[in-house]
Amino acid sequence: MAGMSRYIVERVLQTFVTLIIILTLIFIMFESLPAKPQDLLAQNPLIKPADKEFLEAYFGFDKPIQERYVLYMKHMLTFDFGTSFSQAEPVWNLLQDRIPRTLLLFGLATIISYLIGIYVGAYIAWKRGGVGDGTAVVTSLVFYNMPSFWIGLIFLLVFASQLDLFPLTGWYDPSVDLWKPLNILWHMTLPLVVLILLNLAGTILLMRTAMLDIIGENYMVTAKAIGLPERTVLYKHGARNAMLPVVTSFIISIVFSVSGAVVLENVFTFPGVGALYIRSLSQLDFPVAEATLFIITLLVLVGNFFADMIYGYLDPRVRI
Amino acid sequence: MRGPIRTWKLYKGSKTGLAGLGIVLTFFVLAVFAPIISPYDPDFRAPAEDVFYANSVELTLTEQYNWSAPMGLTADTREEGLIGLMLYSQDVGKALIFPIGTGVQEIEIQDPTTYTLPEGFDYVEYVHFPRVVGETSYFLVRDGQTVYEYADNLIDLNVEWDLGFEPKYTSNLWNGYTLALRNSRLALVMADEHNVWLYDKVPRDTLGFFPEPRTFTDTLEITDETIIGNPLVVDGDFENGSVIIIPTSSDLRAYRIDVEKSPLTGVVQNIQLGAQMWRKNYTLNGNEFTPIDSKRMITFPYARGASDAFGKTVIILATTDDDLIAYQRETGEPLWSGPLIMPGISDFQIADLYPSPAGVIVTGKAESRGFIAGVDADTGSVRYNRTMFSLTEGYINSPPQYVSGLGTFIYSSDRGIIYLSDGLLGINATFAAPSGGALTPVSFLGNIYIQSSVTGNYFAVVTSENTMFVSTLSGVNKAPLPPGKYPSGNRYLLGTDYEGHDILAWLIYGTRSELMVGITAAFVAVVIGTVVGLVAGFYPGMIDSLLMRATDVMLSLPGLVILLLFAAVFGPSLVNIMIIIAILSWAGIARVIRSVTLSLKERAFVDAAIIAGASESRLIFRHIAPNVLPYTFLYMTFTISGAIVTEAILAFLGFGDVNNVTWGMMLQYLQISGQSLIAWWWLLPPGICITLLSMSFYLIGRAFDEVVNPRLRKR
Q: Does pTM surpass 0.80?
């Protein structure tokens, strides 16, 4: 496995370089925002000039741009996110509860949708041309092209408002007499199901295509010919190999999934990182927006890194 | 590359591809012919009669008497709303009080309680004091020579006064009890031909010497002349000469209201009618005139704004020659005089004068019709020389009541018609009350509290079929309207949004911006992607690895999240949205084009071209690019598909372009209107259209993919 460790080192370095580039891009973007947070200070008549100077120095607005860039990089890479503008609280306090929530929502949705998607995709490719295949493909196509927030709104309308089965907002309701994990799950059901449906559509379509490529291969024909059970041929010989491109596409699908999570957190008022990001962006709360954006980017990069690892493990050729 | 005919033949094999193409073409037709197809303009709004709904109720009165105009009863417990409605009938000495509940959607008027009042009474006034002063509400009732003060239950008698004469004239009730003006009081004057009775109520003093409100009364006899009209109470604060103005048969005279206060504490000790301040004969510039034959011959304008609430410096009198004369309050000096001029109307007769925040309102008869005019209290002209007057069917029989929240006046005519006028007295709305029209003058009640957040301005009348009709003035917004046909005759096939825009019209016009955003963004993206891919594929080494590194970074960006930041930086316009979608979508295309270029470079025809001495640019543009184009087109369809959804998400999260109708904006408006859990007709169509259009481009892409990649076709 010597090749594997070199491959890991390479990928780590690559991920780190990408992270630095993205962080720099984020810095440039925030620097070029037309509205500056200082403007908010200037508008508030309750803030005295002395306080204003103190705050500007505290948040580093008085320093030249290159110095701010270095400070920003240092802060981001050491997870020292500073203080929120709008809430006078360390950014970590805002983030620490939200990160696990988003991870849970996003992680559960990704894992469940991949497990179901690979299974269903392989199966419908095997039974291609049938009614099940047609239905699954059309349903996937529809969900694949649906705006995530819209399905979210429909689920809210039907299951939360009309049928009153699930709560409309939130993450946990202490007033409901329910074991805490169940209570949380009950609140998470709707966003989770919507996110799974969205991710599932892409995975099923991809897996089906990959599987169709494999089915015609000689070894598949051989496996069938020597009388192996259909299940073995389908899952052991077929699906396993077809998974390679699906894992590759994880890079794109993780971005898709994270975007979906950000949007859905807003629709379901789920107190996660995505909802915090949108709020801080509209409030010009730079430290919070930068920190949340950093966390989300990190999530995507780490996800990609693991996808690369799995890929390297599954396909020895890439390690060379 | 095959010819277009062969491509089409191959494409035709895909049913989903054909469906996608069909849907896309349909949307193109909708976009191009939007003005013809759409039932309404995007700017169209459903007319008020569809969107507004006047919350009203009609109650049958069990007994038929000569009912008074309804009165609204305010109480301490509900700051903003009314607690009851009262009707009374002098015929039988009865009063009915209808309690008002807090309805959820509709006003809720409960069954009335009947009270017995002194038989033959001819004056009832309901007085309400704000809670903070510690006072409550009570009724003043007069019967013959006696005035009664009842508690607010109309049962407990607080005080009664025997006036010793039977009043014929009653002044305005000056109620200065407001939160802002605590140092004020309530004053009322009653009079017959020669006697004047002053009733004055003072709130409890804040020092606590008198924990209850106190009443002072005083009388005055005028022996030399006969009183001919309602006196006018022009109250000031305790220092600032309050006066009562009394019109007699030969002059207008003013008496001071004397307030005696403790010099030490400032607490009011006594209030009485004081000395005569001035009297003015009915002559002006040596000419004699006659005041109009009406109890309401004099009035004063309400001050504009609360600060000079006491500063009523002008008293206005109307004459039988249709002149108006303004007197200074303190001295009685005439300020101005002149005829009431209403352009185009020559033959008219002034009937009554009313105070109003818009100056002074003059009503009367103009030939067979009634008129109402607003007069500027400073100059005497019909204000602004604009439509400060209107003609009405029948004569106005109710004091024009000003609805401050709406800036309108409400009044009724003796033909049972109710009028709503704007602040300049141009008539906004004319309507008959149901059940044969209004029998009594209309009364403006004030606010009635309803749980569904609608605290409207309500009015009430008794109709000629013995019912009481209570209704809102402004109406309640009914939009978003569900699909259907509405009173205006308009049919909204997909309903309307919160502002009354037709959903179908917006859907159709929205097609234009969707196609524009999708196609432009995708075009820019594929141009960048193709160029990057071609260059990277053609020049291996430094250039290739640099470009591919950039592509990797772009691909691992959390796209939508960055997109939101971009949108915040560049500002939410449709052009910016297209550009940023393009910037974030080229990377995937570049990758594909690069690998296609790489494989093309190995093909024999490229080698042949190189041997033939083709230049680099000729190689790229003449030999490789044409073979790359099908892939470019293929990824363009996928990018359009993605761009349409992305635009919707951006718009929904509040980063959309408010100046354009897009499906995403429709959903954003739905979300911020708070109707997303109710208005399914507003929620479903934009989402379905986004999905359909996005999916159709995707389907075209898939079908075309099979044409471009023959390997896929076998399946």
A: no
